[in-house]
Structure formats: structure tokens, C-alpha cells
Amino acid sequence: MSLITNLVVFVFSIRCNGFLLDDRTNLTTKGVSTLSEGHFAMLLGLLAEEKQSRLKLERQVEQMQRELLSTQRGVTEVFHTAKSNNEILTLQNGTMENTDSNYVDLKKKYNLLQNAFNELKVNYSILERFYHRMENNIDKLRNETNELQQDIQATNYKLSSVVNDVNARKQDFLALYNKADKTEKEMTNVSASFQHQFGLLTANYNATITQLESSVQTQIDTLQHTQNIEAQQVQQLLSKHANRVALTTCDGGSRHLSSGSMIMFKNVYTLNGINSTAKATYESSGKFTCDKPGLYLIATFIMTETNEAILAVYKNDAEIKHMRAYYATNGHFQTSTIVFFDSLKQHDTIYIRPVTQMFMRYESCFSVLQIV
Ligand SMILES: *[C@@H]1O[C@H](CO)[C@@H](O)[C@H](O)[C@H]1NC(C)=O
Ligand SMILES: *[C@@H]1O[C@H](CO)[C@@H](O)[C@H](O)[C@H]1NC(C)=O
Ligand SMILES: *[C@@H]1O[C@H](CO)[C@@H](O)[C@H](O)[C@H]1NC(C)=O
Ligand SMILES: *[C@@H]1O[C@H](CO)[C@@H](O)[C@H](O)[C@H]1NC(C)=O
Ligand SMILES: *[C@@H]1O[C@H](CO)[C@@H](O)[C@H](O)[C@H]1NC(C)=O
Ligand SMILES: *[C@@H]1O[C@H](CO)[C@@H](O)[C@H](O)[C@H]1NC(C)=O
Ligand SMILES: *[C@H]1O[C@H](CO)[C@@H](O)[C@H](O)[C@H]1NC(C)=O
Fold first, then answer.
1. Which residues lie below 8 Å from residue 288, measured CB to CB, with a gap of 6+?
2. Contact 350, 244 (CB under 8 A)
3. What is the enclosing helix (H) or strand (E) of 310?
4. CA distance linking residue 33 with residue 17, whole number of Å
5. How far is the CA of 87 from the centre of ligand 1 (A)?
6. How far apart are CA 245 and CA 288, in angstroms?
């Protein structure tokens, strides 16, 4: 209720200002007894003004009444609201106790927080010092970074020049690569051509070599054959030569020989190219039988003291040569000789007979030598 009273007093005090404004048009009461026409006109004006003011006031009072009504309604609403609020407050009073205990808790927590805050302050100062140190370090780092940046710029410059250089090298390399590629292709061509040529050459070489080999082999064979033949011939010749017939036999003793008898020369002095069988045949028959055809030297010398003794050389029982032997003028023995060449065929026989009777000394010999 006191709240409503206050509100009404407040509204009136605001409205009173309107009256005070009207008071400023103060009426001059001085000299009423001397009311002139001017004063009357002024009075009429004042009355009119007063009427206007009154009307105005009336309107204002009406308005104020309306406002008062609306205010009363508003206050009633406020009152209701306040009442319900009060009820809420009463309800809330119960919860205040909880709030109190909560407050105690809160205070404890606050103390803890304050401690933590103090610790944080300490930590903060430590951090601040750390921060300063870090700042210094950062300055250093910044300086180093600047230096590094300069270095990097220099390096970049160098790098770009290197890149340019590399690009130039790249072009060179590409040119070289192309050249190498071309060369490789040419090499491949040359290699293929070479291989082809080499194959042809090898085939040709092989053919030639084979031909040459067979030709050489043939020639060697021919040569060997010829050589063999020649060697055989030479061997034959040599053996023939070595085995040429050479025979010298002399008589064993001095004796009388009858006409037409055989002279047997039994002492074999030289023997070559005649085997023992042939030798024995000669010794028993007194006839030389030719086994190797050829040119022969046939020679005999006879020592005798018979004057005009005649001896003959027979070939195949036919006389081919004869000689006449004489004693020496002083009556002593003398040697007579027959020497000649003759071609003998195989189985030809040669021997000597006295044509007349005669005495023959032992210093008499018969020789046969194959020349060819
Ligand atoms: C609030 O509660 C206290 C005691 O708990 C009491 O003394 C006080 O009068 C109460 N206030 C209201 C407005 O009910
Ligand atoms: C303050 O710093 C110390 C040591 O670094 C740490 O153990 C402590 O928890 C910090 N205090 C707070 C409130 O962070
Ligand atoms: C960083 O460089 C500036 C100028 O070059 C110099 O004045 C400053 O002392 C340097 N700071 C450190 C931490 O070296
Ligand atoms: C390789 O040889 C062939 C035929 O002989 C020719 O057509 C070609 O141009 C050659 N290539 C080179 C790279 O010389
Ligand atoms: C040439 O001869 C050799 C050996 O005889 C052989 O290996 C090769 O294949 C031959 N080459 C040709 C092209 O005939
Ligand atoms: C010895 O020579 C004769 C010819 O003079 C010949 O017929 C005979 O076969 C030869 N005997 C031997 C063993 O060589
Ligand atoms: C009105 O009259 C009173 C009393 O005589 C005086 O005190 C006041 O100053 C006057 N007001 C005006 C505006 O003249």
C-alpha cells in the first residue's frame, strides 16, 4: 500500500509544474483603484488567458484521471504480480538455507581457487621470465633466420644460375643424346652390315678354306704317293745298288787242263749280291748264272807257262771272247787277261773253258761285277 501512495505523490508533483508555469504570468495588483481602459483590456486578456488555462487544466485533469485509472489497473496488476512474487520468495526462502551451505562450499572452493591463482601467478612470472628468455632466443633466431634468408637468397641466385646452366647442359645433353642415338642407329646398321658381310666372308672363307684344304690334301696325298713311290724306287735302287753282284773267285791250285774242260775257280775271294744257294751252284758247276739283269764287267786273268794256249769265255754255251796266252821269253809263267762289258739277262750263264790243253797256275782269277 505504501508503494501505491508514493506512486500517486510522484505523479502529482510532475503535474504541479504546469501550475507553476501559469504563476509566472503574474497579475499586477498594484493601483487597482486607477483602473484604466488599458487595464481593463489587459484584465479581459487575462481572463481569457485564465479561461484557456482552466480549460487546459480541465483537459489535463481528465487526462490525468484516465491515466490514474490506467495506473490503478497497472498497480493492481503489479500488486498481483508482487503477491505471487512474494509467494515465490517464500518458497525460495527454503532454498536459501541450501544456498547458505552452498555458499560455504563456494567459499572453500574460492579459497582453493585463490591458492591456485597465486600459484598461477608464480607460474606466470616464471613463464614471463621464460618468455623473455624465449624472446631473446627468438631475436637470435630471427637474426640467424635473416642470415639464413640472405644465404638462401644467395643460394637461390646460385641455384637459378645452376638451373640455367643445367638447362644449357640439358640442351647440350639432348643434342648429345640425339647424336648418340643417331650414332647408335648407324652403328646398328654398320653392325648389321658388318655381320652380313662377315657372314658372307666367313662362308666364303670357309668355302675357300675347305677348297684349299682339300686341294692341299690332294696335293699332299699326291706328293706323298709320289714320294712313297720315289722312296720305294730309291729304296729299291739303293737296295739294288747295295745288292749289286760282285764276285771274284780264284783257282785253288796249279794243274793241267784238258781242251774243252771247265775251269773251276773254287776259292771265293769276294762275294756280294749272291746268296749261298747261288754260290753253291756256282762252286759245283763253275758257271755264273745271272739273276739280276744289267750291264756287267766280266774279267779274267790266267797265269800259264803253256805257249799259245787259247782260252774262251762262253755265254749260254756260246763262245763270245777268247784270248791267246804265251809263256815269257825267259821260259817263265805269264798272265794273260780278258776284260769286257756285257749286258746280261736273267738266267744267262758265263763261264771259261780252255780251247787247247794247257797248264794253269794258281794265280788265276775270274771276276763278275754288275755295273747297273
Ligand atoms: C525466512 O525464514 C526465516 C527462518 O528460516 C524466518 O525467520 C523468516 O521470517 C522467513 N522470512 C519470510 C519472509 O518468510
Ligand atoms: C605451476 O607449475 C608447477 C611446476 O611446473 C606445476 O606443478 C603446477 O601444477 C603449476 N600450477 C598451476 C596452477 O598450473
Ligand atoms: C640482431 O641483429 C641486430 C642488428 O643486426 C642487433 O642489433 C641485435 O643485437 C641482434 N640481436 C641478437 C640477439 O643477436
Ligand atoms: C640403315 O640402313 C637402311 C638400309 O641400308 C637405310 O634405309 C637407313 O636409312 C639406315 N639408317 C641409318 C640411321 O643410317
Ligand atoms: C664356318 O666354319 C666353322 C667351323 O668349321 C663353322 O662353325 C661355321 O658355322 C661356318 N660358317 C659358315 C657361315 O658356314
Ligand atoms: C738265291 O738266288 C737264286 C737265284 O740266284 C734264287 O732263285 C733263290 O730263290 C735264292 N734263294 C734264297 C733263299 O734267297
Ligand atoms: C508577482 O507579485 C508578487 C507580490 O507582489 C511579486 O513578489 C512577484 O515578483 C510578482 N511576479 C512577477 C512576475 O512580477
1. 247, 282, 349, 350, 351, 366, 368
2. no
3. strand 309-315
4. 33
5. 12
6. 11
pLDDT of 26 reads 57
- Burial of residue 11 (number of CB atoms within 10 Å: 0-12, 13-18, 19+): middle
Q: Choose among 251, 253, 261: nearest CA to 312.
A: 261
Q: Whose CA is nearest to atom 10 of ligand 4?
A: 189
Average pLDDT, stretch 20-24? 46
Q: What is the DSSP string of 64-91?
A: HHHHHHHHHHHHHHHHHHHHHHHHHHHH
The predicted-structure confidence for 126-179, as pLDDT tens digits, reads as follows: 989 998 999 999 899 889 889 988 988 998 899 889 889 889 988 998 999 999
- How much distance in Å is there from the Cα of 136 to the middle of ligand 3? 10
Q: Which of 294, 293, 297, 284 is nearest to 247 (CA)?
A: 297
> How far is residue 314's CA from residue 350's CA, in Å, rounded to a whole number?
6
Ligand 2 mean position, distance from CA 123 (Å): 6
Rounded CA-CA distance 326/258 in Å is 17
Nearest CA to ligand 3 atom 14: 140
CA distance 19 to 212: 162
Give CA–CA dist 137/132, Å, rounded: 8
Ligand 4 pocket, residue 181 CB under 6 Å: no
Contact 289, 277 (CB under 8 A): no
Buried-state track 301-323, b at ≥16 Cβ within 10 A, e below 16: bbbbbbeebebbbbbeeeeebeb
- Average pLDDT for residues 297-317, to the nearest whole number? 92
306: DSSP letter: -
Q: Which atom of ligand 3 is nearest to the CA of 143?
A: 1
Q: Which ligand is nearest to the CA of 193?
A: 4
User: In ligand 6, which atom is closest to the CA atom of 277?
Assistant: 1
Q: How far apart are CA 236 and CA 137, in angstroms?
A: 123
> Using CA atoms, how far apart are residues 57 and 64, in angstroms rounded to an integer?
10
